[in-house]
Amino acid sequence: MADDFELNTDDLTRRMDGAMASLRTEFASLRTGRASASMLEPVMVDAYGQQTPINQVGTVNVPEPRMVTINVWDKGLVNKVEKAIRESGLGINPQLNGTIIMLPIPELNEERRRELGKVASQYAESARVAIRNVRRDGMDQIKKAKADGMSEDDQKFWETSVQELTDSFIAKVDEALEHKQAEIMQV
């Protein structure tokens, strides 16, 4: 019966890790005033009849702290890549030099830093919600096992275990948010 109930904490941990990985990806796309190749990851180019990530149509480099360059492999796609960057909402004005597109990263003003801080907070809250959803799934499994005859001591043990796992991941989200906001506010 439920006496041999074993909650798959590895699965819960893996799913919570997935929420953290997603948060890291979202944080990487936030511009902090210094150049990063990852800031172009969400930008898609209309190439060869489909939406294609920029890193699949050219080489993305960061030659200096405030400059990103894209060496577009197909000369016919240069204008499409430039258009995709302009329309991406990154606030960067691309400059063409043959098949190389240069993206000078402007200094962030105080208002833009605050906006980015709020966006980072929203990303962190989404990650917290995802982690809490995983927690709820784990708790539902425990409740089901309790209905199948699990002892109250076992129920308390597993609930405490799931809650501790959740608390540790929420703390990781808070720490990542704190770090990202400090990075954004750094002049």
Briefly, what is this?
Helix content is 54%, strand content 16%. It is of the alpha+beta class and 187 residues long. InterPro entries: Ribosome_recyc_fac, Ribosome_recyc_fac_dom, RRF_sf.
Q: CA-to-CA gap between the ends?
A: 60 Å
CATH topology of the largest domain: Topoisomerase I, Chain A, domain 4
Q: Structural class of the helices, strands and pairings?
A: alpha+beta
The CATH H-level homologous superfamily of the largest domain: Ribosome-recycling factor
Q: Strand arrangement, largest sheet? A: 3-4-6-5
Radius of gyration: 22 Å
CATH class of the largest domain: Mainly Alpha
Counting DSSP H or I runs of 4 or more residues, the number of helices is 4
Instruction: Assign an overall shape.
Output: elongated
List low-pLDDT spans: none
Subcellular location: Cytoplasm
Protein name: Ribosome-recycling factor
Family: Belongs to the RRF family.
Function: Responsible for the release of ribosomes from messenger RNA at the termination of protein biosynthesis. May increase the efficiency of translation by recycling ribosomes from one round of translation to another.
Entry keywords:
single chain, 187 residues, alpha+beta, Topoisomerase I, Chain A, domain 4, Gyrase A, domain 2, 2 domains, 4-stranded antiparallel beta sheet, two-stranded antiparallel ribbon, 54% helix
